[in-house]
Design goal:
Helix content: 40-55%
CATH class: Alpha Beta
Radius of gyration: 19 Å
Number of strands: 7
CATH topology: Glutaredoxin
Number of domains: 1
Number of helices: 5
Order of helices and strands: HEEEHEHEHEEH
Distance between the termini: 73 Å
CATH superfamily: Glutaredoxin
Largest sheet: 5 strands, mixed
Length: about 180
Amino acid sequence: MSRRTLLGLAVPLLLLAAYFGVTGYIRAHVDDLIRHAVDRPLPDFSLVDRDGRTWTKAELAGKRVVLHFFRSYCHSCDVEAPAIRALEARADDDTVWLHVMTDVLLEVDAATTAATIARKQFRAPVLMADDAFMEKFHKADWSQVTPITYVVDAAGVVRYGLRGLQTEASVAEAVDAVAAPR
């Protein structure tokens, strides 16, 4: 085999190995950031939803909370949306669902953001994340990493951090594992 042929085979293989190495490192890093939020108190925050209501950690005290992070241009977010809608529709009164959209951080235009929200048809409030809020969870630099779902217990402690496309069963299992407030 000629030197040129070997080089022609080696370069694509090296590029492929580099790609998988870098993406593997990034996934591991983001997973570590998400795990870092688990078993810690929900950070103090103040975010406004699309209807103008301000939501804070203090308002959620004593309730089980599901924070569902999503964005526009996210195939996994689109695929899991029906499962999330089904879960929020059957949630009990002691569970608060809040959808956290990261489009503002990613500088997505308002028309695309509005279209994404309309297409998702979520019943629960949609909060627009800002840099400060994202830094408290898994860093604003990683706001394109969606979907992520955090489940918080009634004492205000984050108990689950689910990254990536989730099924209805996997999210329900996490929500059900976090005891409902008494």
